[in-house]
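Appendix B. Chain record.
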Amino acid sequence: ASILFLRACLALLAMPIYLLSFLGIWEPFCKKIFFPFFLEKLSVIHERNSKKQKQELFRNLLNFRSPSGELKLLEIGTGCGPNFQFYPPGCKVTCTDINPNFQQGLSRSMNKNQHIHYESFLIAAGEDLHQVPSGSVDAVVCTLVLCSVRDVNGTLKEVLRVLRPGGAFFFLEHVAADRSSWRYFWQQVCFPTWKLVFDGCCLTREIWKNLEQANFSDLNVQHTRVVLPWTPIEPHIVGYAVK
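Structure tokens predicted for this chain:
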């Protein structure tokens, strides 16, 4: 009852956005203007606070080079390209995102990171990567994306399809807090309004369970914290899974 009451209070505060959504105005505005702007600003804070975890995570990328010595990398939900700085020199990167409106921020990030080779940018959802041939990449990267895909299991199936045998899936995702914690209580309170405002982002997904159920041969996952003040997305998981 307390969760429902607080959800209603939050919805009242966000009533203009709910009204715009009802009129069909919010979603196109969010995708084209608000979310790309917000995500680029949030990325600066998130990168500062998750830099240590990302440096440690992406240090393993070179271990998954193909026998020829090349590293072909596919990033799902590239956004404005905050991960480029962590990729090893010379790797070939294919960028994908369901939202084509990140181009400005993405171009800035590409210009700052000339040490990698950009193959292409594909407009594609994580659940449908049909433009990418099966078994064609050495590594797939996905950070802060599985919270908003429509089908987590479908996305992981596509990851496994495009990876070559012996390739790896690298992830850093915010997840549900412990169910007995106050943080989980507030995640439940914020859930509907947060999902509306931030383009489908779900606060209470237990993504580590989806990873455990996927058909990876080896899974390395660690629960960690990335401090983002005044947000309900502090609990994270980080790691990689091998096909």
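Further analysis of this model is presented in Appendix C.
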